[in-house]
Fold this sequence. Notes:
Layout: E1 2-3, E2 14-18, E3 27-32, E4 35-36, E5 44-47, E6 56-64, E7 68-71, E8 75-81, E9 87-92, H1 94-161
Antiparallel strand pairs: 1-2, 2-5, 3-4, 3-6, 6-7, 6-8, 8-9
Amino acid sequence: MVEPGGMLAPGGTVTLTCETPAQSSVQIHWIKDGMPLPLPPSPMLVLSEVKPEDQGTYSCVAMHPSHGSQESRGVSVVIETDKEGPTTGYVEGQGLGTVALALGILGGLGIAVLLIGAIMWRRRQRQRQERKAPENQEEEEEEERTELNQSEEPEAAESGAAGP
Length: 164
């Protein structure tokens, strides 16, 4: 896998890195626009003082004595020139997409954790209300009994006064 070094500054330097699962006895060669670059094997490619000629698609080839060779996906190095302003450039490739993907996954997980927390908090609130509800019912029943007893006492007094 080739990973871009980031945004290019005019006349600046960009470093492309080729990562392989097995680092021992692997030789890494670089290719630009399908043509091998005449450089010694290295897992890093440094482009110093980038200029329009450096624009192209770069990939690396990992050569292992027993596994053969494997070529990575390409990374585009783009140098843009404005007629009025200075040269600007950027690097496109899978590595930048990987960072965006990782940030998206982390953001999604954060939202899921917040949602689960809100659901659990709401359930606890309902359970507390349900526990308080029976206590309130008992208090209301006692108040009703007291009211009934008070209303029965005057009736008993009236019936006793009118009695034999």
